[in-house]
Amino acid sequence: MRHRPVGDDAMRRAATHLRHMIRTYATKRSPYAVLGVDRGATEREIKTKFRALAKALHPDTRSPDAAGDLTEVLEAYASLTDRHFDVSDLVAASVEIFSVEELRSDDRHDVHDVHLVLALDLLDGDGADEVGLDEDETRALVEADGRVAIHCAEWDAISDVKRALEARFSEAWDLEGRPRDRDGCFAGWELVSGETPLGPHFFVGDYGLRRGDVVHAVVRRRG
Fold this sequence. Notes:
The chain is of the alpha+beta class. The chain folds into two domains: 27-83, Helix Hairpins (Orthogonal Bundle); 101-220, no CATH class. Helix content is 42%, strand content 13%. The protein has a five-stranded mixed sheet with strand order 2-1-5-3-4, sandwiched between helices. A hairpin with a 2-residue loop joins strand 3 and strand 4. It is globular, with a radius of gyration of 23 Å. The model is unreliable at 20-26 and 121-133 (pLDDT under 50).
């Protein structure tokens, strides 16, 4: 009985996989074609076209006659703008597609305004006790009007800011009991500054955020 040399099956599987990859690559559209923009398009033009296409395909606002793949549109946008987000995460996609005001006015999200109380620069000669006292007083002043405030520093990761907010507001924001992501944060919510979603692996200072700035916690309601 003739035996097939060891490794033939593996070689065939590898060849089949390679052919599949070649066909996929050959038929994959460029991100410019997916979004329908010229190669010289500005970031604003790309974002405007992206949002129009994505809104028509998003499950919350999908048009009955819409044709296309939302994942393909999200991947094309991420590729052309160097945005870093999980295209399979509905909330991460939503804060890229919709403005904060659109999310605030729909019936699927809650938006909480968060005032940043950034740590003072310790190199300026202020003692730690004085800095801590100033931050406490600032937060107390902000929260006296019923607003939300959080201590943070320019060198804090956004994921750290999210965890600090969760420690204080997980119950009020209905986050408890939700699954957690790979950063240990509750799933189903994101932080946004203006029109820019804040990536968990970036730092507060990367976004040019300053003391007294307001960011928005966008929480998708359950159900």
